[in-house]
Structures are given as structure tokens and as C-alpha cells.
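Appendix C. Worked example: Mannosyl-oligosaccharide glucosidase
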Amino acid sequence: MSDDLRNIQRQAFAGMMWCKQHYQFIWEQWANGDPAQPPPPPERKSIRNENWRHLYIDDILSMPDSWEYPFFAVWDSAFHCIPLAMIDPDFAKKQIDLFTREWYCHPNGALPAYEWNFSDVNPPVHAWATFRVFKIERKLYGRQDLDFLERVFQKLLLNFTWWVNRKDMDGKNVFEGGFLGLDNIGLFNRSEPLPTGGVLEQADSTGWMAFYSLCMLNIALELAKHRRIYEDIASKFFEHFIFISDAMTFKSGKDEKSLWNEEDGFYYDAISWGGPWIQQLPVRSLVGLIPLYGTLTLEPELINKLPSFKKRLDWFIENRPDMAERNMASIRKRGKGDRILLSLVSKDRLEQILKRMLDEDEFFSDHGIRSLSRYHQEHPYSMDVNGQKFTVGYVAGDSDSGLFGGNSNWRGPIWLAVNFLLVESLQRFFLFYGQNFKVECPTGSGDYMHLGHVSEEIQHRLQHLFARGDDGRRSVNAGSDLLDFDPHWKDHMWFHEFFDGDTGRGLGATHQCGWTGLIARMIHDTGISCRLPQTPRTPTAGMSHYFDDILSRGVNGDGQKPKRQHMRRSSTARSIGARSDFPSDFDAAGDESLDARSVYGGADDPGRQAERREANVHLHRYVTDQLERVRTDQERDGVGDGEEYEAHA
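Step 2, the predicted output written as C-alpha cells:
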């Protein structure tokens, strides 16, 4: 890896640490005022946030930007936990745990969004973040905290139920949701009633819920390895995903419309007035890419170890063939490694969506995936409603809309968080389809890549936001001689909130925006094969370091089967492992050394210090192993066979 990328990664980690800040919001004190001061007006108790009287927040939290945004934002925080887990997994776990605790989470199951309106609805990404943090700690530090996984999973069951009860107005598994953190991406303000009447059925909201279902399924299957009781709840989330997928894409008659547009090969939001009366809003935006998030591969070895789940899976395939074979990816067909694919999109639809997503005249920027297709620069979409004109057009830089204050823009710029999830989705598709399924990347270039290399290419383009080119400049600095060449500034990064869709110029919060710290994880995964921005692409990285949870199916270089990696639980004596229905593969002494300490043990604990030393040794071995795998892939001219690796993404 280049020294420049190492420096970028180090500063991204440092920025994550800098964004830790004490945050206090105690509703009772806010509503009643300070005891020694005149009381606030009584109206304060009946304005925004009046329904969050249980809030008692008094913690160190990871802020979106402790300089410009010194307050938590719940979905930002979930993304923060990914790079944080690489360097401080205890803090990352505590962040996720806090947001699901009873003094944060509403009694009805809603998570608090942010202080200006705790009731705003943000994308449901906490189940994903929970499992990713669990896996990162397991891979990098050699321990798995099953207590953390089980504890948060049980709280997220409440949040999932809140989504189903509150955001599916007609009970047909097509969700509304509201603005969902994407501010001005739509034609209308999605947090307010539509000026047209009716209900906005959202492709992104429904895609997010499919994604949520699969993340909960993934956690349930992990827990079911240790307690069979979780097989039942895994079956529930499997079937719920199927119903969401079917509702989003299936049409029961020629006059009925879904959110999928056959002519354009893309998902759109739609206005529903009940029954078959639906009008699609043909805006090609991130809204139509989010359904790609709803994908998961099921490993045959795991399914065979869970007889109750397997029985229900087989029953569903046998007795509901209509749903198993419709517009979603067929769950009857087995892919590479005999895997099963659960996905909102079929292979045909995947090809159609990727054709647009990888088109440099639409979504595919030199610096990542744009939030709105550049097609709308010349072809804005407009609608007249009662004499008022609503328009969506491509704007690469700062917003030209006053929606949500106009201080962010989802009509063209690049956002790392949503790009990160797209990359992971492509990796999961690769696990199923393998190297034989290739798409043109970029569209029209004549260069065909399998989806593993496509995901790598996107990560490289995102790294090019910060990496110095052969002209000495960084795209993020927008041509500033001071930032690019001054010896006091040239090696110091600004991790902006979002980036210009054409030039890569940094926009929004301009010092250290937390979720942009995700670049540290991308550098970890593919930085070693990243070329300079001006260098022609030569794929070199194998799939071995795309994932943080890889199990070898093959043999070592000496022809012997690989040894099972020693794994230590980070848990208490009452852990799920102690109640496991299955034999343990873990060393008993290692467990006992952790049983006496809480998950968030103090740094001064001698046992804790010994654990950290052991973790550092494990991390060194892991990095050495990854470098050796990359070297081997390079010797093969970048074409890994992919057979050796099994990943649970």
C-alpha cells in the first residue's frame, strides 16, 4: 500500500477519535428549565420532541462532526461504528447498544433520529452495523461477543415491528417511510403530505426494509449456531423478506403497476391513490439503486446444520413456488458453491440496473456512484400540481433547493455511506454468480468485469477522492494550491460530508464528517491494489480481502487442511455460549479469562491489557496473511478462482 493511502487511513481513524464528544439531552430538564432560572414558556412542552419524554442522554457519543454538527444522528452513527470497530470495537459496540436502550429508544420501538426532530425516520441500518461490528471484531481481534449480538438483536426486534406497524399503511409490504435521510432527493418533500394527495410508495423505503429483514436473518442464523431457538425467528425474517420482495416487484394483472419500470429497467417511487391507481415518478436516483442492498447468500453448510430452518425453507420453496419463482432472484436455483441467493432483483434486472449505474453519463463518476443520474442535467423531471411546479434536476455540487435548509444535496453528489453499501451488495452477488457473470464496466467501454472487480473499481474511485494524483493534486481539494502543495497542508486531509458528482470537490461539513471515515475500511480492503487516479486500471486484487469474515475451503500451501482459527468469546458467565445447544469450538481457558469482566471492561485491567496484546499479535498475523494472498493473486495476473473462499457478508 502506498504511503499516501496509509496516511489517509491514519487520519481517517484519527478523525473518528476526534469526533467523540459528550452529549446531554435530558427531556425533563429541557422542558422545565434550570432550577435557578426563570421557567421556560409552557409551550415548550408541546412543540417538537414532545413525545420523547423518556429521553435521558448523557453519554460520550460519536458525532457526525464535532465542530459543525455537535449532535448525534442515528444513521450516521451506525456507519461510524464500522471504522471505529477496527480500532476500538468496545466503543463501537457501546454506541450501537446505547441507541437501542430504553432511555434512547422510544417505548413504541422507534430510534431517536436527531435533536431537531427525534421522530424523523432514518434508514434502518443498525442491524447491518451490529453484525458488521461483530464480524470485524471477530476477524481482527480473534474474539466474538455473542452477548452483544444477542442483546442488540432483541432490541431491534422492537424497532423492526415499529417499522412494519407504522410505515406500511396498507399492510401490503410496500413501505412509505418519509425522507429517510436523503433530504431533497425526491420531487416532493417526503416528510410532508403529498400535494397530489395519495401516498408515496417508496422504492428506497421498501428496499431498506428488505435489507433490514436480511440483516436480521443473518444475525438470527449466527445466533442459531449456538441456540436452536433462533431458527424460528430466522424463518420469520426469511419469509418476511420474500413477502416484501414479491410486493415490490410482482404485478398480478396487466393493469397493475409495481415500483419496477420494465421499459427503463429501473425502480421508481410511485404515488398511490389506492387499488391499481399508481403513478410512477421516473427520476433515476439512488432511490432506484437501494433495492440492490436487499441481497444475501445462504451457505449450504450453515443451512444443513440448522434442521428446523432448513425444513421451513424447503417447505416454502415446495409449497409457495409462485413466490419463489417470480420477479425476485429464484431461491430454487443454486449458485457458486451451491449457495442460495436471496435478492430483491433477478439476474436480468440486476444487469439492467448495473447498465445505468456503471454508465459514466449517468451514475458512474470518476469518484464513485452519484446520488442522481447526470441524465437529469439535460432532462430534468417536472410535475405541475395545482399551479405549482416541482422539478428535479442534476446538481453536482451544493444544493439549489431549499428543502431541509438546503445545506446538503442528494441530487448529484457522492456520499460514501451509500456507496459503501452498494460495494458490499456487489460482493454478495459475486459470491453467488462467480466469475462467469460479467458486466460492462464502465458501460460502453467494452471492458467486462465480474462483480468482484466492479466492487473493487468503485472502491478505488472513492479512494481517488483523497489520493494524490501524479500531478500532485487531490480531487477533494478542488484545485487549491495551498491544500495541494503547501508543505504545511499538503499531507493533511479534510473528510467532507459529501463530494461533487463531477469533480470530487469536498462539500458540506468540511473538517471531519464521521461517516466519510468509512474510507479507512475501503483502504484496508483494497488499498493495496489501488492505482493512482490517472493510471489505467489493471485488476489485481482477489476476492480474499473483500470481506472481513473469510473461511478457507481449500488447503494450505503444504497440502494440509488449514487449522481452525482459535476464537475467543468476549462475553460473561451468563453468555449465550454458556447456554449453547451445540458443542463449543472455543478454548475454555480463554473464556474463563473473560467471564469475570463486562463487555466494556476498563483499560487498566491487567487481563484487559493481556487481551489487547494478544489481539495485536492476531492482527499482525491477519495482515501478513492478507498481503500474502494479494501477492499470490498478483502472480496470477489478478484472476483468483474464488473457489477457496467462503464469506458471510
